[in-house]
Fold each of these.
Amino acid sequence: MKKIYSLLLITLISFSTYAQEEKTEKNDKAHYNTNKFKQLKEEFNTPNTYHTASGAPGKDYFQQKVDYKMNIILDDKNQKIFGEETITYHNNSTDVLEYLWVQLDQNVRATDSKTPDINAGGPGVMYKPLKFTQKFLGKGFDGGFKIQHVKDKKGNTMSYVINQTMMRLDLPKPLKAGKSTVFSIKWWYNIPEHTIDRARSGYEHFEKDGNNNYIIAQFFPRLAVYNNVEGWQNLQFWGRGEFALEFGTYDVKITTPADHILDATGKLLNRKEMLTKTEYKRFKKAMTSYDKPVIIVTQDEVIEKEKVFSDKTKTWSFHAENVRDFAFASSRKYIMDIMAVKIGNKTVIAESMYPKEGNPLWEEHSTRVVANTLESYSKQLFDYPYHKAISVHGKQQGMEYPMICWNYGRPREDGTYSERTKNGMIGVITHEVGHNWFPMIVNSDERQWSWMDEGLNSYTEIMAEQTYQEGFPSRGFPKNVTGYMSGDQDKLSPIMSQSNNIYSFGMNAYAKPAAGLYMLREVVLGHELFDKAFSTYAKRWKFKHPTPEDFFRTMEDATARDLDWFWRGWFYTTGNVDIGIKGVNKYVVTTKPTARVKKMAEAYGMKVEDFGPAMFLVNTDSDDYTSDMENVKNPMEDIKILKDYLNENYSASERESLKNTKYFYEIVFEKPGDIPMPIVVEYVYADGTKERKQYPAQIWRKNDAEVKKLFATDKEITKINIDPDMLTADVNTENNSWPKKVEETKLEQFKNKIKG
């Protein structure tokens, strides 16, 4: 049964919407607010004095501080790490702590690790002999921390319990607010060969010369984060969700074979003693070389060092302040090059360490990419605060730590490489160096929300890559996520999913958040608003622990734009974007009353004449349209009441400046997709010119399926395109054009047939 009466009554009140006479079925069922533009009150945590409603840290915000003093020995002959650390834990919270939680990430590879048991799946594609032996022949890798002792400041043994990758350290007496405690841990572990089990750190063995390349991280017991949001952030490390850590000061001494080259997080305090006179002289030269890298250790020198294995040792000494982690890389195979980068009013070291197997690719690009990343990110966010950034070559690696990162990108044995290998290396170095901002400084909880470091960094990476090489194939463009977003819903998870529960991790945690931010900048907010808000978030939360709400709220706070519809659709659901053109209606101008006007007059108990002289738009496909109406070519001249009005109210010069509107088009836009998005329209005219128009996403606020817009122009439209630059991640482009692509194809076929 037709139920249009209430709808008709409403539309009569607004003349502009009177034509909306659609057949609808009445829905008598009550429902919650399902509008895509409702506020995110139900999803967001309530703001408080720790995390404010504006997205900034509150007056009571606190975070703990942890200081480490470590002595580390790298056993190159047996591939082991031996370590002892003294930890000072500062309780800056208002809470009394009965115990501390310590992360033992190496335990993910312990013989009793549960990580292999939670991962389902059948046979792998292939197995190297060592991996096959470990997996199927009962000779598994003996990984994990071997804790030798945990002692308090006085040397007394402390009570602790190890639960897989977490250790609860029971304090002799509760640690009061504002107080600190000191304890020490001694340990060792077998270093995994990361090329076998894809560990985040470890070593690569080079069979030809017998050397190893060590990239060492997660090598010491580290304190978990304690805050006002979750208390102890002590989720188990299952191998994917990365690390939530506290800031502090590190004093670290690392003993290695005397012929190794090493660098790490923090300032190298005894560089002059660790390098040869020639190497140190080259280093001093590099500190004033802003245009190109200076090679500190040459490839020829490395080839000679590879032949002899020193039995002597030397100890490297580092100091780092206000960092959340520590990592180092060491090998006698390292070529090293350095260049200087001007960031603000200081000089920063851009550095690379790589074996000869990385050349010529690494010598050509690595340090230059580091320098470009430092400059680009500093411009976008805030000046890089540390004194150096290091890129280390690691096969199959891509992992970040403060001031140092591991990166893949290895040429073939003859030194040649593909464009894909080169771009992959440029991309991963940009990404991993960029992680110094997210999360090494803007310190989000990676174990919980991977997108807060991977996604934000992947967006910022795009800008840096395009600076380094215009047209670089960055992965975070909106067009690159459409295939993923239109996939099987059973294999999709919202961006706002805990790290270990994400399907398609690369797309969900990296590419989709990056694409969303790119759309915000290019389509929704514009460059000026977005750039200010994005940098505001970074500056507010540098050296602090932000939450997702802090990011969302800051972006709205700094732009005066309600973006809840965007966060909900893009981050909290698995919906996609699909906006199309359902149809186009052409109109002409007439002074003859239409059926629509007559209905309105009847509804108000009036006569058409009571409205007085007026002009009406008539659909050329409607019953109101008559052949004499098409004679109106120029309403400004052909419609007397308009001509009289203009002559009476505008001067000749003013009339000359008025738009000479001749054509009227009603475009019916449809939205089969779930997520609202601005409608970006390109109108193509008969004379070949084009015009862009953008309708805000809020156009869908009252009708989530279909909206109409009237477009008036002085030129005939021959084609209409939606999202012509592919900036809205539209998953279906078949409905993005008028006339439809299929119609155009048939027309071309018909024309070709006639020509034939």
Note: The radius of gyration is 33 Å.
Amino acid sequence: MTTPLHRWLLPIAACTLLASTAAVAAPQFSVNLPAGRAAGPVDGRLLVILAPSGTEAARTAEPRFQVGWGAEAIPFFGVDVEAWKPGDTRRLDARAFGFPLRSLKELPAGKYRVQAVLNRYETFHRGDGHVVKLAPDKGEGQVWNRKPGNLYSVPREISWNPGAGGTISLALDQQIPPVPEFQETKYVKYLRIRSELLSKFWGRDMYLAAFVTLPWGFDEHPDARYPLVINHGHFPDEPDNWRELPPDPKLKPDYSDRFKLKGYNRIQQELGWELYQAWTGKGFPRVLMVQIQHATPFYDDSYAVNSANNGPYGDAIQQELIPEIEKRFRGIGQGWARFVFGGSTGGWEAMAVQMFYPDDYNGAWIACPDPIDFRHYTVVDIYSDKNAYYMPNAFKRTPRPGHRNWLGHIDTTLEQMNHYELALGTHGRSGDQWDVWESVYSPVGDDGYPRRIWDRLTGEIDPVTAAYWRENYDLSHILERDWLRLGPKLNGKLRIYVGDMDNYYLNNAVYEVEKFLRSASPPADAVVDYGDRDEHCWNGDHTRSNAYARLRYPQMVLPWAVERMLKTAPAGADTRSWRY
């Protein structure tokens, strides 16, 4: 017969057993920083990545190269580390924030290839008095999984049992090597300068660089002076779509899932060679074509404007880099002979610099621009919406979409994209898209990092930050607010192109800008055009598919630039020496 004491002891024993089981419910990772891999204590973001075994991706790529937010997303988890001493270990357990699973305890049983990566931070004592820890660019364009100096472990296969407990040991015994130096050619030169403006802001030496593609006949025409055309966009490690050798007939064809094309790498080589042949042939515009390296400690480029968190990149490019390029390579050096073009990030930049420096450029070819009206910050109205992640309704939660294809099929939500970035880095340090917009558009927060436009976990929008964005970086609002001043300076200079099925819904903001430009007084004489069912990043070519058109920007933009220069050049301007 069971006594009252036994009736008390049995539940206690059961609770003890349950507590013991819960304590070992999920294994944890122990990551070692080997002695000799760092000169002293390091800061950074420690990531542990798990790629399911047996997949084609697992067989062909390390886990660090499979991380993403799309349909093929794999689990990874991250924690901040500070003052990590060589020889010590750090643990990553179920408390680490992850994506697409929030916690390790949600990871299903199975076999995985696991890898640890440390994205290393450095301390910046900025000129505005703030001290921040960020991952500076090392010549790779702010890509954490191939940033020189970052540490990682050799991938290993494990069997994951969520209830087995225990510790899985990894060692950061590999280091990413430096980026090889670019080899100049007869036509492509590389220029790098120290920026006084940026160095003062960041409290250390900061640099700007550019690839300058020289026109055919540059050496043979020493008295010629040339227009300058900037191709704005993400961090380049060489000029886009440029190839001085015929296509490689032995190149193994790849497959572009985005464009559903086999051998897209061959197509890229063919069109790069096509540009070179046109560039060195008769009748092609003779200009200096420039691509800028202006990576910040937050992202692969600065958006080419001044900002509270990044510093005076707009002025540094305009007042320091461009004059040096024109000095070294015989640029005309006047606004009527400068143009900008670009797509996506580069599209926003092209429009922004044309607006913020209206006398310094004579035209902007703006393709698939990042949101140019924050009433359509992709699918969020930051001024009237309360929550970025869900549509307002008292009785249901409808998530806002983040990315679609040309048929409207969605492979991720806005919340998922933002949680992906949060797993990569806190305080806006993911090095990815939503964080960079905050680094450009936001005021500095109390902690020295960009003030959030919305709570990253919940999506609750901050109206104070939204108001700051509106007055300083909402290009649509600024156009309307300042049109009496800007209108005469921008007449005929704006050409905006976007596909009406842009993957990121960027066409929605363009609709708002178009409405204003169509009725603006004084007239805008602007071009706004849409590609039917075209995705990101349609650039105005109705004769080719997007897969091909995106590789032919110079052939589209430069004839228009020459036409406009000849039409608008001031009296006595040099419109002859470069037209040979």
Note: The two ends are 109 Å apart (CA to CA).
